[in-house]
Design brief:
The chain is about 45% helix and about 15% strand. It is α/β, with parallel strands linked by helices. Helix 1 links the parallel strand 1 and strand 2.
Length: about 300
C-alpha cells in the first residue's frame, strides 16, 4: 500500500507563541508542525511544551495533520516532550537530526505510551528530519528503522552548515541530498517533504524552488510563514487540465485493456501500464485534495 499522505504543505509554528498556535488552525496548510526544538529558546522550553499540549486538546476534525517536532529524543528534554505530547495524540512526531538510533528510541517510547493509552500500535506516526550528512548517507536504514515512519523531511540549514557550504537560491548544492531522500522515501511508499524556503518575502523564488523539488519527486514542502502555504499548495495540486488529461489516459488504457491490448496510443503518445498508473495516481491525489488527507490506496 502506498502510504503517501496528503502533505503538500506543512507549516512550522513555534510552540512558544500561543498567538501563532491559535492562528495556525485557520491557515490552509495540510498540516501544522508545532515546534518544540529550534524555534524555542532554552528558557522557554517548558512553557512551550505546556502550550503545545494544551493546543493538542482542541477539537480536531481530522482534515489537518497535527505534528510535533520534539527535541532530541535521546535527551532528557526530548523524552519529556514525548511524555507530554504523545498522550494528547498528535498524528505524527517529527524527530530532529534523525538517525536509526533516534528513530528506534522514539518508536519504543511511543509504542509503550500507545499501549498504556489503549491505542493500536502505530497510531502515531514518525517523520525523521534528515538534516545531517550521516542521515543522507543512511536514509534507507532510517526509513526502515520503524514501521511507523510515514515520511521523510529534509532540513537544509543544518546540513549546509555541517558541509560548510552556502545555501543558494538555485539550490544546486542540495540536488544530491534531495534526490537521495526521494529514492529512499519512494522505495517505501512514503512522503518526502522538502526543506523550508527561507526567503518568505520572495514568492516567485518560492514557486520556482517548489516546482524544482516537485520535479525531483518530492511530495510536499515545509513552510515557515503562512503566506507561503497557498503557493506551495498550488504547485503540488494537479491542475484542471492535468486532471482532464489523466482521465483521458485512464479511459484510453481501459479501452485498450478490454480489447486485449497491453498498450495504446493517445495524441500520438504511447500509453502503457506505467503511464496509466501515473495518471491514476494523479486522479487519486486530486480526489484526496478534494476530500481530505487520507493516504492513497493504490
Amino acid at each position: 500500500m502506498d502510504r503517501v499522505l496528503l502533505r503538500r504543505s506543512l507549516l512550522y509554528v513555534p510552540g512558544s507563541s500561543p498567538k501563532m498556535i491559535a492562528r495556525a488552525f485557520d491557515v490552509p496548510a495540510d498540516g501544522i508542525i508545532f515546534d518544540l526544538e529550534d524555534a524555542v529558546a532554552p528558557p522557554e522550553k517548558e512553557c512551550a511544551r505546556a502550550a503545545v499540549a494544551t493546543a493538542l486538546d482542541a477539537p480536531r476534525d481530522g482534515r489537518k495533520e497535527i505534528l510535533v517536532r520534539v527535541n532530541a529524543v535521546t535527551s532528557p528534554l526530548g523524552l519529556r516532550d514525548l511524555l507530554a505530547v504523545v498522550p494528547k495524540r498528535p498524528d505524527t512526531i517529527v524527530v530532529p537530526k534523525a538517525d536509526a538510533v533516534s528513530i528506534l528510541a522514539a518508536d519504543v517510547v511511543i509504542g509503550a505510551l500507545e499501549q498504556e493509552l489503549g491505542l493500536p500500535p502505530g497510531t502515531i506516526g514518525l517523520v525523521p528530519l534528515m538534516e545531517t550528512a550521516a542521515s543522507i548517507v543512511d536514509a534507507a536504514a532510517i526509513v526502515a528503522a520503524a514501521s511507523r515512519v510515514t515520511g521523510l523531511q529534509f532540513g537544509a540549514e543544518d546540513l549546509t552548515k555541517e558541509l560548510g557550504i552556502a545555501r543558494t537560491t538555485v539550490g544546486d548544492e542540495l540536488h544530491h541530498a534531495r534526490s537521495t531522500l526521494v529514492f529512499a522515501g519512494r522505495a517505501r511508499g512514503i512522503s518526502i517533504i522538502d526543506t523550508p524556503f527561507v526567503h518568505h518575502a520572495d514568492p516567485a523564488a518560492l514557486v520556482a524552488e517548489t516546482e524544482r523539488v516537485k520535479g525531483l519527486g518530492m511530495t510536499g514542502k515545509t513552510c515557515i510563514h503562512p503566506n507561503q502555504v497557498a503557493a506551495v499548495n498550488a504547485v503540488f495540486t494537479p491542475t484542471d487540465d492535468e486532471v482532464a488529461q489523466a482521465r483521458r489516459v485512464v479511459a484510453a488504457f481501459a479501452e485498450a485493456t478490454a480489447a486485449g491490448k497491453g498498450a495504446c496510443s493517445l495524441d500520438g503518445k504511447m500509453i502503457d501500464p506505467p503511464v496509466a498508473e501515473r495518471a491514476r495516481k494523479l486522479l487519486d491525489k486530486a480526489d484526496r485534495i478534494a476530500g481530505g488527507r487520507a493516504p492513497a490506496t493504490n
